[in-house]
DNA sequence: TCCGGTCAAGGTTATT
DNA sequence: AATAACCTTGACCGGA
């Protein structure tokens, strides 16, 4: 482990969380990079499931502006995935932040996901 | 690069795989010798981890005859490691093919691994 | 050339 | 069913 990898430790291949890093999506403790950005296990898994199953979420509030933090990240899947993408999460090393979003009160997913 | 090294190319020091060489364990493309035999990155890493951590695997099928190819190599660790050793993989330049195996439906690992 | 180390991706498991 | 912690894999890199 290099000295530059402060905050990221590994034992036997296991990835451990560390107080030094935090998730760009929800602020929870991060174990390192996931899909291009510093993210926690929760947001990493959520993004993985959403992309793999091509899930389409709808913001129940209709605003697309729900708070996404450790305490509320499971309250609105649409806003959580939106923030994942806005913070730079991507599947193939290609950013999705410039993709058009659907805000027509149907869902908040980028067109490329459908 | 010598003319004898057909199939193995390198650019800028990076090791590249080539269709000309294939892993003796699973048939995947190989980048050259690993632990004594032509092997792919996957089987090389698998053997490395197994030996280092002295892992003991069990064949769930109980036959010790699972297919080990690129598509199925992760289906049975016991049969993968068995084939690694049978094809001549070794840790210190000393062949393990003559080591006794345990076939008493407990596991398939060589005694020396335990 | 090859070996050891790295670490993100994907799979698995426990929990709810 | 979804979530998140844990685990295994393998492509890549630097060093010998
Ligand atoms: Zn998070
Ligand atoms: Zn919302
Ligand atoms: Zn192989
Ligand atoms: Zn088997």
UniProtKB/TrEMBL annotation, chains A, B:
GO terms, molecular function: DNA-binding transcription factor activity; sequence-specific DNA binding; zinc ion binding
Gene Ontology CC terms: nucleus
Superkingdom as given in the UniProt entry: Eukaryota
Keywords: DNA-binding, Metal-binding, Nucleus, Receptor, Transcription, Transcription regulation, Zinc, Zinc-finger
Record protein name field: Photoreceptor-specific nuclear receptor
SUPFAM superfamilies: Glucocorticoid receptor-like (DNA-binding domain)
Pfam families linked: zf-C4 (PF00105)
Species this chain originates from: Halocaridina rubra
Subcellular location: Nucleus
Main location: nucleus
């Amino acid at each position: 482990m290099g000295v530059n990898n402060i905050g990221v430790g590994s034992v036997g291949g296991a990835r451990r969380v560390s107080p030094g890093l935090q998730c760009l999506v929800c602020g929870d403790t991060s174990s390192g990079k996931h899909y291009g950005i510093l993210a926690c296990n929760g947001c990493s898994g959520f993004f993985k499931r959403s992309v793999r199953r091509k899930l389409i979420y709808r913001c129940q509030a209709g605003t697309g502006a729900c708070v996404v933090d450790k305490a509320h990240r499971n309250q609105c899947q649409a806003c959580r995935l939106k923030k994942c993408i806005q913070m730079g999460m991507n599947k193939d090393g290609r950013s999705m932040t410039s993709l058009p979003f659907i805000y027509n009160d149907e869902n908040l997913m980028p067109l490329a996901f459908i």
